[in-house]
Design goal:
It is a single chain. The protein contains 7 helices and no strands. With 107 residues, it is mainly alpha-helical. It has a domain of 62 residues. The radius of gyration is 13 Å and the shape is globular. The relative contact order is 0.23. The model has no long low-confidence stretch (mean pLDDT 88). The chain binds iron/sulfur cluster (2 copies). The site of one iron/sulfur cluster has 14 residues, from helix 2 and helix 3.
Length: 107
């Protein structure tokens, strides 16, 4: 059984170069409405609704298992401009990529 990492959300924030400029990994506002997945040109449904929650819950293994999905996002923000909760989806994806670059690819 996978262990939880209670510091995961903080580690994602700390891996983000612009974290001191005011942007925070914001995912807790997500209402799980599904709009983001419906408008995504890549058909990505996992990102805000599951992967961001994995981060908040400290489910590090599940985040790393979905590296391919995290890198398939186009950062087009179609989801973000339609999100009723104001989740910074594309910026959050960029934060996750920085975290994975450090943790998985050792960059
Ligand atoms: S559109 Fe926003 S509130 Fe709805 S599931 Fe996606 S991230 Fe969550
Ligand atoms: S930013 Fe990524 S998740 Fe959002 S609509 Fe574009 S490709 Fe899909």
């Amino acid at each position: 059984m996978a262990l939880l990492n209670p510091d995961l959300a903080d580690q994602v924030r700390q891996a983000t170069p612009w974290s001191s400029s005011g942007h925070e990994f914001n995912a807790s506002a997500c209402m799980n409405c599904g709009v983001c997945g419906a408008v995504c040109p890549m058909g990505i449904e996992l990102l805000p609704r599951k992967l961001f929650r994995y981060v908040l819950l400290g489910m590090e293994d599940q985040v790393k298992e979905n590296t391919e999905t995290i890198y398939s996002c186009l950062l087009c923000k179609m989801c973000e401009v339609n999100c009723p909760a104001g989740v910074h989806i594309a910026e959050n994806v960029r934060s996750l990529r920085h975290f994975i670059n450090r943790q998985v690819f050792r960059l």
